[in-house]
Amino acid sequence: MEIKPSEISLKKSLVPVVLLISLLFYNIIFFENNDWLGDYTYHYILIFTSSLAAILGISEGAKINFIIKKIFSSIKSISTPIVILLLVGALAGTWKVSGIIPAMVYYGLNLVDPTIFLPLTLIVSTLVSLTTGSSYTTSATVGIALVAVGIAFNIPAGMTAGAVISGAYFGDKMSPLSDTTNLAPAMAGTDLYSHIRYMTYTTIPTYVLTLIVFITISYSLDISSAGEMSDINSLSNTILNDFYISPILFVVPAIVILLAFLKVKPVTALSVGIFSAIIFSIIFQNNILSSIDTSTINSLVKSVFTDTSIPTENLRIQRLYDSGGMKGMLWTIYLTISAIIFGGSMDGIGALKKITNFLLSKAKTTFGLFASTAVSCLGINVVASDQYLAIVIPGKMFKDAFEEKNLSPVNLSRTLEDTGTVTSALIPWNTCGAYHYGVLGVSVTDYFVYAIFNWLSPITTLIYAALMIKIKMISNHKF
To answer: Is a pLDDT exceeding 60 seen at residue 226?
Structure first.
């Protein structure tokens, strides 16, 4: 028989959450590089608050064995994402050594006008994410290259990363290939294409506003200093002299995107991308391999597993030439595990359920129901640090409440996506926020403001709910 935690009060349930947020904000506000306790500040804070949550639970009668079981169950649930994170690190390393990412940057510098770079970044990221259904794949492929091009144009990395993530999450919401796009209607009790069609009412206006903002930002940038041709030519020539650059290198990312489109498992698709890049490295980039290590095998091993630094005299492009391989993803993996431990502790003591039930009890009006659902999704993204839980738990908890108010399940599925999916990338310790930081090398605090689509989506859905715009009733079969 399963051991269950005893009832914990709402006040005690909120103590770990309030402490977590307070400590994290203290770190962000008072320490410029968010390094209050060193490189692993976020990790220490999460582990500390996890311990506090467990102690509070035990004081209320929860069994330590049950809490530990929940923690290990949560960690087990992210075993595949951890493997994916390691493979993404290897992908970044091999794609740099093979010249794939440098080629993207080279053609980006020579073919893209800096005045349209940010809106173009949004559009390119959108197209890739719609094709693959994955914000992860978008960041790990074109995202890395676009951030590097933006840096070369002297555009703040946070701006470019914000455009990448905004576009990536448009596809993550709207593509029928996306796991969250399939999960949300399943939890709400509607079908996939009704869900997608109903999401267009909030998603398209939000996206258009995002595009307009990036167009405005682009034309307000000091392009005269950002795009000096001599500087751009210097960067291009450096890449061209160091690497073999040819459109043929794009065969590898094309294969990975095709595999993602065909719904091949991410582990398989990424592995194919890594091995293909290794082959291309041997064929096209022998000089790069020899500059890393005298042994070709050692150079390839370093690009997959450890730190790799390709020598260059152009300091502005050094970041493009450096890679951490799988080792470079360890910080992100440790953060993910720390966050999952906190979520498991909160679940184990019954705090997650208590907080969600409280929100449900406050949903007296139609708008209150939408607002409670949105707050619940955001809260679980903060507390449980997982976008899937932010869809599944509120989906289960609020399904009956929507039906009782004669609201079609498409309202719930849309709200789950508009708040649960997109806000995950805005939380540094969430698995999604940690992932994008690890891949793009840009912290959440730097790209938060510019991830316009992500923070505007929940605002849009709440405005629609408040004004009763496109709120479908069960008895009304027309939108």
So the answer is: no
